[in-house]
Amino acid sequence: MASNYHFATVSLPLFLLFATLSTAALVKQQPLILKYHNGSLLKGSVTVNLIWYGKFTPAQRSIVVDFIQSLNSAAPANPSVAAWWKTTEKYSSGASTLVVGKQFLDEAYSLGKALKNSHLVYLAAKGGHAPRTVNVVLTAADVSVDGFCRSRCGSHGATRSAARFAYAWVGNSAAFCPGYCAWPFHQPAYGPQAPPLVAPNGDVGVDGMVINLATVLAGTVTNPFNNGYFQGTAAAPLEAVSACTGVFGSGAYPGYPGSVLLDKSTGASYNAQGVNGRKYLLPAMWDPKTSQCATLV
Length: 297
Prior knowledge:
alpha/beta; 6-stranded mixed β-sheet; Phosphate-induced protein 1; apoplast; EXORDIUM-like
């Protein structure tokens, strides 16, 4: 099956590199503007099917499912996950309401523990080809994927076949590269070595997955078929969240996630509240109305 696969996560070492350079040496960056390329976006009710590849505990799965359910929940107090997601409505107007659909468990590692991009598309197809659907493949901590930990932590794309559908992948980096894909919940692999933040759900790998899942979901609804909103080239675009890599709160700079909230009972850091008492740390999202990376705190 032919596919169009584009990265949605900016590598951590890249933005930490700038922390080692003097301010005077930095070339003035061009304004951050995500251009709309007149393609279709995913608006309205969008079903998110989950393909769990490898072994995840029920607690780990609930962290991710609760996050997706939180995207459209009006119940949690602000700052909320839903308020963060609401920024996607400003992209060519109209809301994208994400609903958890089917879940598929592949705990037997049917394709082995070393996956290629073609394997991800094959697994994603288990979710079907229905319109306004995103099939998300989530790989366990003992599964390697081409490019994982080297150039990406998650990505998304779409098939080119007649039965076109959008899909995404995010890996659990706990065993392979938590300093790369689960920062700021782990010491960074490169750059300034600040103490890590405490993960809000007590799972460095899965809380890191939520950050990357948030990134690819926002990229999927605003640039599902590689002709939506992005800056740069279509082969390696900066999208709604990947354009704001490393920013979680006000005052962020390379190697420092910004000012976020602290749960006094657990010491965990967060900036958004979700359903079932969950707290999450979510990356900044580019706001097309202000042309700025918007944070909740």
